[in-house]
Design a protein that fits this description.
Structural class of chain A: mainly beta
Strand content of chain A: over 45%
Radius of gyration of chain B: 13 Å
Oligomer: heterodimer
Helix content of chain A: under 10%
Largest sheet of chain B: 7 strands, mixed
Shape of chain A: globular
Number of helices of chain A: 0
Chain lengths: 111, 114
Amino acid sequence: QKEVEQDPGPLSVPEGAIVSLNCTYSNSAFQYFMWYRQYSRKGPELLMYTYSSGNKEDGRFTAQVDKSSKYISLFIRDSQPSDSATYLCAMSGPTGNQFYFGTGTSLTVIP
Amino acid sequence: GAVVSQHPSRVICKSGTSVKIECRSLDFQATTMFWYRQFPKKSLMLMATSNEGSKATYEQGVEKDKFLINHASLTLSTLTVTSAHPEDSSFYICSASKGTDTQYFGPGTRLTVL
């Protein structure tokens, strides 16, 4: 079983829709959870960072972590064509330098 | 804060030559730097992890003699692709970490070997 599972999509939604992106993981020791956005031919850009469980909101983006279910989500409200990108989830544990990435979900927002 | 730069952004070289890519953390000291390779429409593939002043730890299947990593300071790591071949053509991305919480990525370097 992979440490982190993420549906690769592709996901296509109309402009203005609410987008839900998800990852599941197997290691209960993970404490730091991140979402990155990667545009084509660019490096990933950190979108959201959450420590432990709970919700975090930043503008149109909301990150949720449910440690009991080992499940994290990223919600995008009022999606825009500029949100079209690949979204990567990532997580790391309490010690060491090991990070685990999902395979990425490709999102297209249609005008 | 937490800006990471890479240089060059694009490089084209002849087969058999060596290419050096620099990764710099501009506004923080990076305890660890990572090097990734990414093929078109594929996920990140971790190549190696390096800590300042020590040897890099390479992932299984990555040739350490081909991909030389030097992490000379807390703000600079370099990846040298030695004796490059067309199959080494790829998008190389570095990232830097202050600790265990998160990684900050550079913009990537597109390498084309003719």
